[in-house]
Amino acid sequence: MNKVLLVTGGSRGIGAATARLAAASGYTVCISYVRNQAAADEVVASIAEAGGTASAVAADVSREEDVTRLFRHIDETCGGLHALVNNAGMLETHMPVEQMDLGRLQRVFSVNVFGSFLCAREAVRRMSTRNGGAGGAIVNVSSAAARLGAPNEYVDYAAAKGAIDTFTLGLAKEVAGDGIRVNAVRPGVIYTDIHASGGEPGRVDRVKGNVPMQRGGEAEEVARAILWLLSDEASYSTGALLDVSGGR
Ligand code: NAP
Fold first, then answer.
1. By CB distance 3.0 to 4.6 Å, which of 39, 69, 93, 96 could disulfide with 11?
2. Does the C-beta of 246 come closer than 6 Å to ligand 1?
């Protein structure tokens, strides 16, 4: 039987690249998305065309009822869960901290932090050997922003990713004895749609001169690191924060 992988936010960008690569590596893949059904359908169709198996569920990770419905779908259609990539994430328009209101902070932390906690909770309940599961692996998608702070752009998002780093360290230790490895990747500037949501579609090309490797990254380059952390090749790695950021 193929291993079953859930990639949250698998309709676009890093999540879509991870879903495609995982399916090509033999995983049965479930992706979630929040509103872009056409993009999700396209990922599922491209996986099927390549001979893989995938399904897509609309589920906002910041809504607990959506998360429980998403995992029920996996229980009912995949019959088990072996791996989770907590990839769904968002940021808002560039803004200094002095202008941020509570609504923005709640949206940013709800999706990036609380959503990852809720999905990890559901995954641990199913994968933990303590609960009769077969073990598994979780990869959280953090950001180099957790180290850099993203001043004048989105300190809220950077702080949320800092929370993801700490979450990764804590959960990794909590479930290490229950057959579950928990790691994180910290991408640098990657060519995806997320920069347009920050109000600057061309951001990667503006900042790439600050990257020691002098270029932005591709979603597939992050996906390969995620797939390695999920795999048995990384069998002794847990609580690791893997930078995929061209040296930045
Ligand atoms: P993206 O191209 O904007 O894609 C975001 C994905 O997340 C989409 O599939 C989107 O679904 C989904 N999503 C957004 N909000 C969601 C919610 N509330 N519930 C469920 N799904 C939701 O972003 P990306 O650049 O690939 O980012 C993926 C991850 O990498 C994020 O965690 C991001 O913080 C992190 N990251 C990215 C970069 C970068 O430079 N790109 C750098 C560091 C870290 P829809 O298609 O339905 O909107």
1. 39
2. no
Residues 96, 179: Cα–Cα separation, whole Å: 42
Burial class (CB in 10 A: 0-12, 13-18, 19+), 88: buried
**d(C-alpha 118, C-alpha 33), whole Å:** 15
Over residues 63-121, the pLDDT tens digits come to: 999 999 999 999 999 989 999 999 999 999 999 999 999 999 999 999 999 999 999 99
Q: How far is the CA of 220 from the centre of ligand 1 (A)?
A: 14
Q: Is 33 a catalytic residue?
A: no
Catalytic residue among 27, 33, 157, 191: 157
Which residues, including other chains, have CB under 8 Å from residue 106's CB and lie 6 or more apart?
A: none
- Which CATH number among 3.40.50.720, 3.40.1190.10, 3.30.70.120, 3.40.250.10 corresponds to the domain 4-244? 3.40.50.720
pTM of the shown model: 0.98
Q: Is there an atom of ligand 1 within 6 Å of 12 CB? A: yes
